[in-house]
């Protein structure tokens, strides 16, 4: 946009507006004239004669009389006159007034359009002068150069991929020495993290429980960071302290920037912190023993009878999916069907069980203040639903009769 | 080419250019004239159309006058209507004629502009040639 051309355009547009304004003025005058004539024509036939001051010449008036007040010669245009009465002349004037108003409306619209055009040119001017704070970023496009660049880009991408593939194979050799100046993929790093986790888990388990552990042998394909590993009936979730996590986050960021030096450093830091992870706190869960429900269906499965009172054992007992439930679920849920079997209720046994559970609970409470060094008390106390029901029976007043019915059925 | 010949060439070119410029200006004047005439005809046409409309509204007994010079002459309504209609037709014809002429003049102007451009180029070349000769 050349500035001087824009300036000229603006000048022309302003001239156009001036012209339109002049025309509007002219037509406004016509309009007012027609309005006056119409008014006059309405009042003229009120009297037979009017006393007026007649102008003759441009400087003198003479008193005179206006007669034939209803006979008016109207100029139609092109030197044609017609004799009309005052009323008819008023109608003609009315029509002409409407036409002038129509003309005025058109002129005003024209003026508006020109104004809009002026606005646009002003905008262009500000853009050309760069005074409105908007920068036009332009890049030259050369189709040949773009093709060259594309070819080079493809080659670079291929090289990168090949290098990353080669890099995955000797991953095992590079465990604690860090990557030597080559780009590592995300998959390799996740694999490395999983391995370190497992090593740490191994060490912790050896010291705490002395159990053998089944390890999953997945290596390069494992992409998830925190895999909650199910070992027998125990759920184990690992937390590491804040600092190693941050290192991992940093590492991921640095990958995006493709900076070899950064990566090397981060790998080393990670290996250091993985050794120090041993000192970090971990939260382990174990589940308390739960007495079996008295109303449970008689289990014919020998495995379940064996397993229920003791801590559930892992692995070899599980042959089918159903076995998992038998092994892991320690409290047997109540059947929704009406219990037709009448079993001898051993109330004494139930009461002793409740007492035992209470004792366990109080014992746990006593021990909690002492274990401030640990992050958690390590024992999850399972609530025995049977105990709850028996307690409720002691207060029959607050219970609805349906519930009472159910209770009585349950206790049968 | 000798310097004298170059001078002669230049002079002849100059004369030709003068001649062509005059012609171009004449064409332009005609063009403007016809444009003005057309505008006027357009206004007259509108006026006469309005008169016709008003005459159509009139009842048969109304008096119509025509102003010829300082005299108002009474006219018959039918006659007046016919006259006005004839005038409208005449104006339309004139308008078409003007339009045709204006188009012709526009074309002529374009051609003359091109000729002038060529001549100017030649003249400049001649000047450069002369400058070369003089500098030798």
TrEMBL record, chain A:
Its main location: other. Keywords: Cell projection, Coiled coil, Cytoplasm, Mitochondrion, Nucleus, Phosphoprotein, Repressor, Transcription, Transcription regulation. Pfam families: Prefoldin. The keyword Cytoplasm applies. InterPro entries: Prefoldin, Prefoldin_subunit_alpha, RNA_pol_II_subunit5-mediator. The keyword Zinc does not apply. CDD domains: Prefoldin_URI1. Residues 245-266 have a biased composition (Acidic residues). Residues 211-276, 290-319, 389-412 are annotated as: Disordered. GO terms for molecular function: chromatin binding; phosphatase inhibitor activity; transcription corepressor activity. GO terms for cellular component: dendrite; mitochondrion; nucleus. Residues 217-227, 297-310 have a biased composition (Polar residues). It is found in: Cell projection, Dendrite; Cytoplasm; Mitochondrion; Nucleus. It comes from the Eukaryota. Residues 83-117 form a coiled coil. GO terms for biological process: negative regulation of transcription by RNA polymerase II. Homodimer. Component of the PAQosome complex which is responsible for the biogenesis of several protein complexes and which consists of R2TP complex members RUVBL1, RUVBL2, RPAP3 and PIH1D1, URI complex members PFDN2, PFDN6, PDRG1, UXT and URI1 as well as ASDURF, POLR2E and DNAAF10/WDR92. Interacts with POLR2E/RPB5, RUVBL2 and RUVBL1. Interacts with PFDN2, PFDN4 and STAP1; the interactions are phosphorylation-dependent and occur in a growth-dependent manner in the mitochondrion. Interacts with UXT. Belongs to the RNA polymerase II subunit 5-mediating protein family. Plays a central role in maintaining S6K1 signaling and BAD phosphorylation under normal growth conditions thereby protecting cells from potential deleterious effects of sustained S6K1 signaling. The URI1-PPP1CC complex acts as a central component of a negative feedback mechanism that counteracts excessive S6K1 survival signaling to BAD in response to growth factors. Mediates inhibition of PPP1CC phosphatase activity in mitochondria. Coordinates the regulation of nutrient-sensitive gene expression availability in a mTOR-dependent manner. This is Protein phosphatase 1 regulatory subunit 19. It comes from Potamilus streckersoni.
From TrEMBL, chain B:
Residues 7-61, 95-136 form a coiled coil. GO terms for molecular function: protein-folding chaperone binding; unfolded protein binding. InterPro entries: PFD_beta-like, Prefoldin. It holds the Pfam family Prefoldin_2. The keyword Cell inner membrane does not apply. One of its GO terms (cellular component) is prefoldin complex. The keyword Coiled coil applies. PANTHER family: PREFOLDIN SUBUNIT 6. This is Prefoldin subunit 6. It comes from Potamilus streckersoni. The lineage of its organism: Eukaryota, Metazoa, Spiralia, Lophotrochozoa, Mollusca.
